[in-house]
Amino acid sequence: MPKYIFVTGGVVSSLGKGLAASSIGCLLEARGLRVTLIKLDPYINVDPGTMSPFQHGEVFVTDDGAETDLDLGHYERFTNAHLSQANNWTTGRIYLSVLEKERRGDYLGKTIQVIPHITNEIMEAIRSVTSNGEADVVIAEIGGTVGDIESLPFLEAIRQLGNEEGRENALFVHVTLVPYIAAAGELKTKPTQHSVRELREIGIAPDILLCRSDRPLSHDLRSKIALFCNVKESAVISAQDVDTIYDVPLTFHDQGLDDLIVSSLHLNEVAVQTDLSEWRKLVSTVREPSAGETAIAIVGKYVELEDSYKSLREALTHGGIANNLRVNVRWIESEELMDEESDARLRDFDAILVPGGFGKRGVEGMIRAISYARRTRTPYFGICLGMQTACVEFARSACDLKDADSTEFNLETPHPIIFKLRDLVGVEQFGGTMRLGACPCVLSEGSLAREIYGGAEQISERHRHRYEFNPAYREAFERSGLVFSGVSPDQKFIEIVELSRDEHPWFLACQFHPEFKSKPLAPHPLFASFVHAAFQNRLKTETSVEQIPDADVPAIERAATASEN
C-alpha cells in the first residue's frame, strides 16, 4: 500500500510548492523509494492548453500528449517518475468527469454534490496514479493558496484521504512564507501562523512546515513557529532562497527532511541511506563551471514571463552542465528586432535560439534573427515555431520565394511553406486538437542530427503544434541546400531541418520540443550539442579578435562582414 504526502501552500502564491514537491521526490528516490507525483489545480479549465503563457506560464507536454501544468516539468526533471495525463487534474476536469458519469446514470438518480461526489472523484484521481502498486510514495501537490474558495474541494478531499489512510500512511507538508519587514528589521512569523490556522480550521494539521524566506531562520524563530503552529521544531524547515533550484534538495536534506519523512511514514525498513553525490557534483558545476561561459540569445514572443519557457531555460542549463559551462541567457522580445538595428542587437551573442509560440506577433523579428544567424554562421537552434520560421526565412532568402509564409500568419500567401496540419483541416476547436505527445522520428544517415543522437536511426520526441511543413516544397528546398534530416516513419511529417556543415557549423531546427525530455543528470543531446557549438563560436570569435592588431571590437562586429560573404 502506498504512502501519501500532501503539499499545500499558504500566504501567497508562487512560493515554490512544485519545486518543494519535486525536491521531496528527489530525496525519497535517493533513499531507494519509488515515487510518483500528481498536481491538482483549482482552475476550471479542463487543462492549461488554451491558457495564455502570460497567465499560466509554460504548458508541459507528456509522452501521452497531455497538456499539463509546468510543475510536471519539475517533477520529471527532479525524479525518474514517468508522468501522464493521470498526473494532472483540474477543477474543470474533475467536474467534467463527474458530469459525464451523471449523464450515464452512474449515480443511480442521486443528488450530485461537492461532498461526497466531487471529493470522491478527487480521491480516486490521487489513488489512481499508483493503482498498480508501482510507487511506494505518492506526492500530491494542491495548487493555489489555502483560503482560496476554489481550492476548498481539493483540501477537503485530502483531509478525507488522510483520515482513511491513517497517520502512518499520510503526511501533510505546508509551504508558507516568513517575510522580512525592512522597517522592523526582522522576519515575521504571523503570516505562517495564520496560514496554518486556516488549514486547521478545515481539519488539516500540517506535520511539516517549509518556511520560505530570503534569509536564514534563527533557532528562536523556528521554536516560535513550532510552538504556535503545533509542530515539532525539527519539522520547521527553512526554505531559504538559493542561487540554483537544484540546490533545494540538498538544503532540505541537510536539515533532515528526508529522515523526518521516512520516519513519519514508517519507511525505515525499506529506505536506504541517502546518496546525493551526483546531485552535489551537479550543483557544484552549475555554480562554478570549469570550462568557461557562453552567451545565448532566446528570441521569443513571451519573454516578459520567463516561466513561459521554463523547460527551455532549464534545458539550456543542462546543456551547460554537460559541457561544464555557464550559459548566460538573454531574453529578446522578437518585436524589438523589427528595425534596421536588429543585427547590432545580436552581435554580442555566441548563438541564437528561437522557441515555440503561436500567432503572428513578432514573427518577422524571429525571421530577422534567423537570417542573421544563417548569414554570419552563428549557431542556430529552432524549436517548433523556430523551425517553421527558419523554413520561411530559407524560402525567401535561398529559394527566391519572396512572399513565402505560413498560413497561420497569412492565409493568402502564394507560397504556403507552412500550413495547417492536414489532419486538422475543418477542425475549429482549439482545446486538445494539436499534434500532441511522443512521436517517432527517423534520422538521415550522415546528418548532424544523427550524429548528435549518437548514431541512432530512430528517436522519439514530444510534440505540440498545429501547423506543419508543406511537403510540396521539399524538393525545391533540397535543391537550394536545406537538409531534411528527420522525418516521421511514414514520411508524412518533417521533423528536423538543418544546413550542411559545409554551409554552416551548426544550424538545426526541429518541429518537436526536446526541452521536455531534458534532465539535469541527463541533458538532452540537442541542447548539449548546441551549447558546445555556441562555446566553439565564442572561442573562434575571440581568436579572430586577438589576431587583428589594435583591434576595434565594435568595428569588427564579431567578424560578421567577412562571414556574410
Please write out the topology:
Elements: E1 3-9, H1 17-30, E2 35-41, H2 53-56, E3 60-61, E4 67-68, H3 71-78, E5 88-90, H4 91-104, H5 114-128, E6 137-142, H6 152-165, E7 170-177, E8 180-181, E9 186-187, H7 190-201, E10 208-213, H8 219-229, E11 236-240, H9 248-254, H10 257-264, H11 277-287, E12 292-300, H12 310-323, E13 325-333, H13 342-346, E14 351-354, H14 363-376, E15 380-383, H15 385-397, E16 404-406, E17 415-420, E18 435-443, H16 448-452, E19 458-465, E20 467-469, H17 474-479, E21 482-487, E22 494-499, E23 507-510, H18 525-546, H19 553-556, H20 560-564
Parallel strand pairs: 1-6, 1-7, 2-5, 2-6, 7-10, 10-11, 12-13, 12-14, 14-15, 15-23, 16-17
Antiparallel strand pairs: 3-4, 8-9, 17-20, 18-19, 18-21, 21-22, 22-23
Helix pairs in contact: 1-3, 1-9, 4-5, 5-6, 12-18, 14-15
**Biggest sheet statistics:** 9 strands, mixed
The backbone outline, from C-alpha atoms, is globular
Helical proportion, percent range: 25-40%
Radius of gyration: 26 Å
Q: How many β-strand runs?
A: 23
Continuous helix count: 20
Helix/strand class: alpha/beta
- In spatial order, strands of the major sheet run 13-12-14-15-23-22-21-18-19
| Beginning-to-end CA distance, first to last residue | 68 Å
